[in-house]
Specification:
The chain is an alpha+beta fold and about 240 residues long. The protein has two domains: about 160 residues, 2-Layer Sandwich (Methyltransferase, Cobalt-precorrin-4 Transmethylase, Domain 2), CATH 3.30.950; about 55 residues, no CATH class. Helices cover about 40% and strands about 15% of the residues.
């Protein structure tokens, strides 16, 4: 599998192929986009650059956005799919993960982790860019994106987010929401570390499960608030 973090998600598994069928039918939103393609190989330099910048903008806006009704906090960009959900497909060798990762490293700070995979569906191939939840928001443009000396696509320091499926420049209220979410994530991780200290490394899986059940009974509201972290740590 092509990725910069192979353990983030298995896009090539049968379970994800079933999910992909559902994603194709889903409407675009804050965490989800469909593209026929990013034309990184166009003969005209300006068009090629515009497609590269569009990709950077799309990734930044998705990773910075809050779910707002979207099921899950991870994001996806599907390639070879129209806005209406028509499967047009891409060439199997159209992209590699390096094509995307290099652009992110060049233009985004802090960097964004992604996974890319080309998945066969019937006789065509669909490209899937998976964007996991980030704990380092906001992600901003770290250098000017421009076609020439004066023609700017986006300037250094801009932060993109989304209003439904529309990409927008983040305003003060958007950044306030991002920092509020960061604080909540920090509190969740601190609570998870407190729980972790209570669990001995020598505990069996059964003993850990019993202790977590006991914690849930004594602290139901806290458990519900931090259950995502517990699942991530212990699979509970």
């Amino acid at each position: 599998m092509n990725s910069n973090e192979n353990n983030l998600i298995d896009l090539g598994g049968d379970d994800f192929k079933q999910k992909l069928s559902l994603l194709i039918k889903r409407k675009e939103g804050t965490k989800f986009d469909k593209k026929l393609k990013y034309d990184f190989k166009h003969k005209k330099r300006e068009i090629k650059l515009k497609n590269k910048f569009e990709f950077v903008k799309d990734v930044c806006s998705i990773v910075n956005s809050l779910p707002r009704g979207y099921p899950g906090e991870e994001g996806y960009i599907l390639l070879g799919v129209s806005n209406s959900g028509a499967k047009k497909g891409i060439k199997q060798s159209e992209y590699t993960d390096v094509d995307f990762i290099d652009l992110i490293e060049e233009y985004v700070a802090p960097s964004v982790k992604i996974v890319y995979e080309t998945i066969k569906m019937g006789r065509i191939f669909i490209g899937v860019i998976y964007i996991p939840k980030s704990y380092s928001k906001p992600h901003m443009i770290k250098r000017d994106m421009k076609f020439g000396r004066k023609d700017y696509f986006a300037q250094k320091g801009i932060c993109f987010t989304r209003n439904n499926s529309k990409v927008i420049h983040a305003q003060k209220e958007d950044l306030d929401e991002i920092y509020k979410e960061n604080k909540k994530d920090e509190e969740m991780n601190l609570e998870a570390k407190r729980i972790d200290k209570k669990l001995k490394r020598t505990d069996s899986d059964k003993e850990i499960e019993m202790k977590l059940r006991e914690y849930r009974i004594k602290n139901p509201s806290l458990f519900d608030l931090f259950k995502d972290v517990l699942v991530r740590l212990y699979g509970y």
